[in-house]
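Q:
Just now I want nothing more than another pair of eyes on a protein record. Here is the record:
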Amino acid sequence: MLAVTIAALVAVVVGSTLLGAADLGVGRIIAEVWAQVTGGVSPLSETEAAILWQIRLPRVLLAGLVGAALAGSGAAFQGVFRNPLADPYLLGAAAGAGLGATIVVVAFPDAGAWAVNPIPIAAFLGALGGVALTWALGSSAGGGGTAILLLAGVAVASFLAAIQAFVQQLNTDTIKQVYTWMLGGLSTSGWREVLLTLPYIALAVVVLCLAARLLDVLSVGDEEASSLGLRPARVRMIVLLAASLATAAAVSVSGLIGFVGIVVPHVVRMLAGVSYRIVLPLSLLGGATFLVIADYVARTAFAPAEVPLGVITAFTGAPFFVLVLRRSREKLR
């Protein structure tokens, strides 16, 4: 399964790089890559080379990073909360990111023209702030147990969403820009976004993969895990922090892209089993593959217009979400 998933990801990345709204020609792109490797003459014009190396390839890789972060975080959240409907936005990351981005858009309407766009930074800090607020509220209310954290996440998300709606109501001229960001999408102007998110996502991925065996132990219950020498509260904290870091990094450059963290881990479980030593790495690879495909559809389906990436994932994820609900209901009977 691992080899098949890696092969699928490589094929999708190569295909999305070769094909796009701007027809550069598959043969000419291959010749361009060969020219870069061997130092030969490029068959592409300067503009075409910029499209390939500064727009298309960074965007494909960014889609892979974001998809891996969201799917891996979703699998980790489902393992910690032992809830198949848990997703990366459960602890207020989405609401915090939305509020951070809204404040910047309202305060600095021309921020997109700055040398360094502050919206991703504000969204990243807002997402981490939302998770931190949830954790603080949960810890003060009941020691940070999973049930308390779930309720705290709902409360914090509702509170931050209310603040965001209030800010938007006071600044109706920015609503379109805010909702465009919230619908999700990937826009790159070079490698800056990839380099911005890569360290955080890479660190979180390493931590989650190392914690996969511990999530398997937690699945049998806290008492059994404690008898085996684990500290369940500490393991949950480490996993949630890593998953929240990955989610915040992804949201900061992509906006709010839904369903990836639910759909991909469930598909992996149906195909490869329930052990997190399998689910986590395959979810990371599967999430990257899924979002690269979704982004390709978003940028080519109605070219030169572009469909918001969140709309594409919703079209795929909503029917699957209904299936998950039905399966969960059958298990509860």
